[in-house]
Amino acid sequence: MVTLKVILFGDNVPKDRADKAMEAAKGCDAFLVLGSSLMTMSAFRLLRAAHEAGVATAIVNVGVTRADDIVPLKINARLG
Q1: Do the beta carbons of residue 71 and residue 57 sit within 8 Å?
Q2: Single pTM value for the model
Q3: Would residue 1 count as lying in a domain?
Q4: Which site in 12, 27, 33, 40 is 20 to 30 Å from 51, CA atoms measured?
Q5: Which of 63, 61, 30 is nearest to 47 (CA)?
Q6: Residue 59, domain CATH
């Protein structure tokens, strides 16, 4: 059985899930952002932590993102 947890925009992510996501971001080989401006601090924080941990980071998004100045690769393109 799979349990789906939904966090609505503006809601807080439970601390245990946020901690797991942060550890995964810091420990992964690469962190790819697809179709997000990263304007929410929770999303930006994950990318920033990965970048600071030396993880390869990149973004594919149309328009400006909050992390444009820290990622080495930004592709300004639509998904799909």
Answers
A1: yes
A2: 0.83
A3: no
A4: 12
A5: 30
A6: 3.40.50.1220
Local confidence pLDDT in tens for the 80 residues of the chain: 666 666 666 777 889 988 999 999 999 999 999 999 999 888 899 999 999 999 999 999 999 999 999 999 999 999 98
Sequence-distant contacts of 56-59: CB under 8 A, at least 24 apart: 56/29, 56/30, 56/31, 57/30, 57/31, 57/32, 57/33, 58/30, 58/31, 58/32, 58/33, 59/32, 59/33
Select from 42, 36, 37 the least CA-distant residue to 10.
42
**Backbone region of residue 38 per phi and psi (left: phi > 0; alpha: psi in -120 to 50; beta: other values):** left
In a domain, 10, yes or no: no
What is the C-alpha to C-alpha distance for residues 26 and 76, in angstroms, rounded to an integer? 25
